[in-house]
């Protein structure tokens, strides 16, 4: 089990140079030879690799996938959202919905930085519509301000919890649940993309209910509508989510990942 355990206890950057068969030392950073400091004459300054390692540690502590490390608000490309297509005849265009979701994500970060509590945010929409991108951008924006965030892909998290019963990891179910409950900001990506049972429904409800009671915000993404979520994860959980989250819809004509390959 590797996913949330990264958040709890992992040392990524213990540098041990490899020795080749020729007795040579191979360094991870050839500039400072893994010392972290470069000395030029009487002047010593920090090597750039130290800053890079610090940034990577920050992403790892948030459990953020490497591919999301560069997700930022200014890279959220509105060109993938049609100005003409709409969910219904008189509703807003896909482009208008995306603009509203982007503004909502920025507002969430600004509000959290000011008061640390308040409403969370839910992005719903079809596959490949940019929901996870915005969740990653929120995570990165908060990390830039040294805030504590935990990014969980819900199906993976539930699998991790189940694996604790077979003692396949060093952490207990209580350890994993406690980390998710107590994180200052919790991102739940792909909520609903799992074969939900009464057991998984109860775990998600316990998590959401705890954070509701303690005023700890959630960022949630889902492919499901609110009605579908009622059926899949249960009405009592959805009731809590609606209570604590502003809801934004994202729609695209074509999966953005597919569209990007055509560029």
Q: Keywords for this structure?
A:
15% strand; Rossmann fold; AAA+ ATPase domain-containing protein; alpha/beta; AAA+_ATPase; 43% helix; 2 domains; 10 helices; two-stranded antiparallel ribbon; IstB_ATP-bd; 263 residues
Query: Considering the protein shown, what is the CATH homologous superfamily of the largest domain?
Result: P-loop containing nucleotide triphosphate hydrolases
* H and E string: HEEEEHHEHEHHEHEHHEH
CATH class of the largest domain: Alpha Beta
| Dominant shape | globular
Look at the helices and sheets and give the structural class.
alpha/beta
Specify the biggest β-sheet.
5 strands, parallel
Whole-number radius of gyration? 21 Å
- The CATH architecture name of the largest domain reads 3-Layer(aba) Sandwich
Beta-strand content estimate: 5-15%
State the separation between the terminal residues, measured CA to CA.
37 Å
- Low-pLDDT windows of residues: 1-20
Number of helices in the DSSP assignment: 10
Describe the structure.
GO terms for molecular function: ATP binding. InterPro entries: AAA+_ATPase (IPR003593), IstB_ATP-bd (IPR002611), P-loop_NTPase (IPR027417). Pfam families: IstB_IS21. It comes from Formimonas warabiya. With 263 residues, the protein is α/β, with parallel strands linked by helices. The protein starts with a helix and ends with a helix. The strands form 3 sheets. Strands 6-7-8-5-9 form a 5-stranded parallel beta sheet, sandwiched between helices. Strands 1-2 form a two-stranded antiparallel sheet. It folds into 2 domains: 61 residues, no CATH class; 198 residues, Rossmann fold, CATH 3.40.50.300. Strand 3 and strand 4 form a beta hairpin. The protein contains 10 helices and 9 strands. The longest helix is centred in the middle third of the chain and has 22 residues.
């Amino acid at each position: 089990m590797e996913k949330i355990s990264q958040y709890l206890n992992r040392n990524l950057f213990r540098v041990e140079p490899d020795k080749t068969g020729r007795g040579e030392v191979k360094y991870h950073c050839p500039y400072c030879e893994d010392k972290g400091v470069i000395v030029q004459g009487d002047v010593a300054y920090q090597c750039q690799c130290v800053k890079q390692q610090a940034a990577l540690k920050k992403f790892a502590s948030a459990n953020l996938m490497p591919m999301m490390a560069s997700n930022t608000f200014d890279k959220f490309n509105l060109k993938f959202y049609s100005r003409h297509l709409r969910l219904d005849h008189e509703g807003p265009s896909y482009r208008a919905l995306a603009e509203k979701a982007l503004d909502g994500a920025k507002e969430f970060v600004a509000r959290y930085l000011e008061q640390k509590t308040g409403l969370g945010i839910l992005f719903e929409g079809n596959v490949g519509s940019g929901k996870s991108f915005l969740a990653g951008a929120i995570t990165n924006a908060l990390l830039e301000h040294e805030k504590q965030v935990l990014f969980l892909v819900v199906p993976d998290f539930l699998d991790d919890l189940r694996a604790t019963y077979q003692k396949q990891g060093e952490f207990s179910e209580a350890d994993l649940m406690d980390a998710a409950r107590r994180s200052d900001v919790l991102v739940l990506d792909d909520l609903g993309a799992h074969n939900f049972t009464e057991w998984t429904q109860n775990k998600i409800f316990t998590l959401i209910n705890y954070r509701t009671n303690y005023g700890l915000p959630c960022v949630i993404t889902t492919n499901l509508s609110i009605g579908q979520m009622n059926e899949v994860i249960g009405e009592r959980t959805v009731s809590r989510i609606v209570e604590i989250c502003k809801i934004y819809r994202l729609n695209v004509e074509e999966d953005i990942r597919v569209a990007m390959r055509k560029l």
